[in-house]
Amino acid sequence: MSSEERTFGRRLIETLERVHQRYNRAAGTVGAYTPRVVKAAEAVLAVALFAMTAYWFVLYL
User: Fold this and answer.
1) CA 55 to chain centre
2) pLDDT tens track for 1-46
3) 36-52 burial, b if ≥16 CB within 10 A, otherwise e?
4) Distance (Å, rounded) from C-alpha 23 to C-alpha 31?
5) Residue 7: which residues within 8 A CB-CB, separation 6 or more?
6) Would the CA dihedral through 31, 32, 37, 39 be positive or negative?
7) Whole-angstrom Cα distance, residue 1 to residue 21?
8) What is the pLDDT confidence band of residue 60, given thresholds at 50, 70 and 90?
9) Which pLDDT score is estimated for 22?
10) Which residue from 40, 39, 42 is spatially nearest to 50, judged by alpha carbons?
11) Claim: this prediction has a pTM higher than 0.85
């Protein structure tokens, strides 16, 4: 089947399949990096909370 013989519907389905594959690849990439980003954010927040608590103790106690 040559490219001239492909129908509009077939081209649309092929395009949607390519979009779906790219979406899955992007979702996999985001899913791979998200846990690291969340752990880093938790560590930063934990250190900031500890520093704020220590400052409060020094200041008011």
Assistant:
1) 35
2) 555 678 999 999 999 999 999 999 999 988 888 888 899 999 999 9
3) eeeeeeeeeeeeeeeee
4) 12
5) none
6) positive
7) 23
8) confident
9) 95
10) 42
11) no
Distance between first and last Cα of the chain: 82
Burial class (CB in 10 A: 0-12, 13-18, 19+), 10: exposed
Q: And the tokens for 20?
A: 């779906």
Amino acid at 8: F
In this structure, what token pair is assigned to residue 8? 């509009």
Structure tokens at 54: 């220590």
| Planar angle of CA 9, 15, 18, nearest 5 degrees | 145
